[in-house]
């Protein structure tokens, strides 16, 4: 892997910093070393700092509180953007209020959509107990109400019965197809890889032949949302992420610089692979390590303080010489005259 390392000297170059959360700031339910120090430093320097997660199930208020406990002291809910925020904004613009959707996600997402948009949400009806054979009647019952859209997200208890229901709904071209989660995998405890919402989305796309409108990284919908809600200079914006196919692709698609943090999904070997395959949209400009950046910043601050001290001492010396000239030399000169 031949990529430059993000250094402390580059901090002054950028005005806006966008961070993924899982795998970048938090990994395996623990804070990534020195990530709070770096983020807090950016806030103190007056930088614009935002957090864009592909986890639609994140409650921004609880997440801000959780990050505060980890040592990120300046984060508020308005700094955190989720795919659900983008979907709700899209639904408001396109007048989905009081409509019906079929949702593959958690009850928290269901309740949020119902409360904020008065949307009727299908997909949480009582299903027949799981059996070895396929239950056609369960699918037929689920299809009695036609939705305006199918919305896919991560759901551990996703079943073949639900897949069959979705397939049949999407046979109707008037039923829109949306996806919240786009990550194919996410890293769990002990470095195990778990299927994300993008895995379910991909299965549905393959089976139906339809392409979902996505609301997470690297979607156009998210790009539009960010550009409409943030005043940012793309030439002075950088994103820190751990996923080459969501975070890094999102940054490159928007003209941001991208820094891959090797604390999450993808490794240096994966970077070599995308370089070898010339997948330019997935190649980061930098790789980074928060501990190295903080160490460099500490050295720079120490050097800067020494320079200030040296300049201060020079000024004091000059002022002392001026005072001595006025107090000692000038009176003697006047006396001789």
Automatic annotation (TrEMBL):
Cofactor or coenzyme needed: Mg(2+)
InterPro entries found in the cross-reference section: HAD-like_sf (IPR036412), HAD-SF_hydro_IIA (IPR006357), HAD_sf (IPR023214)
GO cellular component term, pick one: cytoplasm
Keyword match Transmembrane helix: yes
One GO MF term: metal ion binding
Binding site for Mg(2+): 20, 22, 242
Membrane-spanning intervals of the chain: 308-330
Cited PANTHER family: 4-NITROPHENYLPHOSPHATASE-RELATED, FI11325P-RELATED
Name by which UniProt lists this protein: 4-nitrophenylphosphatase
């Amino acid at each position: 892997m031949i990529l430059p390392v993000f250094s402390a000297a580059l901090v002054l170059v950028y005005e806006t910093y966008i961070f993924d959360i899982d795998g970048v700031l938090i990994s395996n339910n623990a804070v990534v070393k020195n990530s709070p120090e770096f983020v807090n430093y950016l806030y103190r320097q007056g930088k614009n700092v935002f957090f864009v997660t592909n986890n639609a199930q994140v409650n921004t208020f609880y997440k801000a509180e959780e990050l505060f406990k980890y040592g990120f002291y300046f984060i508020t809910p308005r700094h955190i953007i989720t795919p659900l925020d983008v979907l709700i904004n899209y639904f408001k613009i396109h007048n989905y209020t009081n409509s019906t959707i079929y949702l593959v996600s958690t009850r928290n997402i269901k309740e949020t959509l119902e409360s904020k948009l008065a949307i009727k949400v299908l997909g949480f009806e009582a299903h027949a107990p799981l059996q070895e054979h396929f239950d056609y009647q369960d699918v037929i019952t689920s299809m009695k109400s036609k939705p305006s859209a199918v919305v896919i997200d991560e759901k551990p208890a996703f079943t073949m019965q639900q897949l069959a229901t979705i397939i049949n709904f999407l046979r109707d071209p008037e039923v829109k197809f949306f996806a919240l989660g786009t990550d194919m995998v996410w890293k769990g405890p002990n470095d195990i890889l778990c299927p994300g919402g993008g895995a379910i989305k991909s299965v549905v796309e393959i089976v139906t032949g339809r392409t979902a409108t996505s609301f997470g990284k690297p979607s156009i919908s998210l790009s539009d949302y960010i550009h409409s809600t943030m005043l940012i200079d793309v030439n002075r914006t950088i994103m820190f992420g751990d996923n080459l196919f969501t975070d890094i692709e999102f940054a490159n698609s928007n003209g941001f610089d991208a820094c891959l943090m090797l604390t999450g999904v993808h490794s240096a070997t994966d970077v070599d692979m995308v370089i070898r395959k010339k997948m330019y949209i997935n190649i980061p400009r930098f790789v980074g390590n928060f501990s190295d950046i903080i160490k460099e910043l500490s050295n720079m601050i120490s050097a800067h303080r020494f320079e200030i001290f040296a300049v201060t001492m020079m000024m004091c010396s000059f002022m002392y010489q001026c005072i001595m000239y006025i107090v000692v030399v000038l009176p003697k000169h006047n006396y001789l005259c």
